[in-house]
Amino acid sequence: AFWKQECYEKAMTRAIEHCESINQSHWNPKELERWQELVNAVPEMLSAYFNEVEWRPMLYIEKEWRKTYSLVFSKTNESIEEIDVCGKLDRVQGCMINPNGKLEVANYELKTASEIGGNWKEQYRNQALRDCAIGLYDWYLCSLGYNPLPPVIEIIIKPYKSKPARVEHIELPEIIVWRKRFEQQLRWRVTEL
58, 92 in Cβ contact below 8 A? Predict the structure, then answer.
């Protein structure tokens, strides 16, 4: 709702409708308790997002994509069967045209998290760097001819005890540096299929 310039009330209505649509009849008591905690946190988490994030026009919002990846072996010039890779970009913002004539874009991945432990942010960041989806999204944007800036993980932190909900951002410049490595890993994974 936020990125479609809809109001907080509309977002809250959508959240309530979604929560009410979830079938909880087969959940155990612990799952029901955790679900109720999350439902109770939704108004505060939405409020934090609406208050802390600045609206900007976006190129893509929740864009589902699919791209055919075909592997050609350089020595034999033989190609294997084509494989479709796919994903869903949360948000991509166009920034500016660089000197090479490519549009620089910023990729934002929205997540939720609990602030558990003193170094949760570092642990979350390290986990995000190991997540192949972030590299895949960067690869996809490059394949479209864009020049992606370092991806940003936008995290809505759940409220806990006396700590309110808030939004944190983690930038991942390593993804840019590791592009060639990611392409090699993608090629290897496709070869293994």
Answer: yes
Token readout for 143 is: 């394949």
Measure the CA–CA gap between 11 and 43, rounded to whole angstroms.
Answer: 9
CA distance 80 to 47: 50
What's the pTM?
A: 0.82
90, 63 Cβ separation under 8 angstroms? no
Q: 83 pairs with which residues across the strands? A: 69
Residue 117: which pLDDT band, with cuts at 50, 70 and 90? confident
Torsion, CA 56, CA 61, CA 171, CA 161, rounded to 10: 90
Residue found under tokens 């920034």 = 95
Residue 33 in this model has a pLDDT that exceeds 80:
yes
Structure tokens that stand for 18 in this block:
């979604």
Concatenated DSSP letters for 103-171?
EEEEEEEEEEE---STTHHHHHHHHHHH-HHHHHHHHHHHHTT-EEPPPEEEEEEPPBTTBPPEEEEEE
Question: In the numeric block, which tokens belong to residue 74?
Answer: 């350089």
Least confident of 20-34, 73-87, 156-170: 73-87
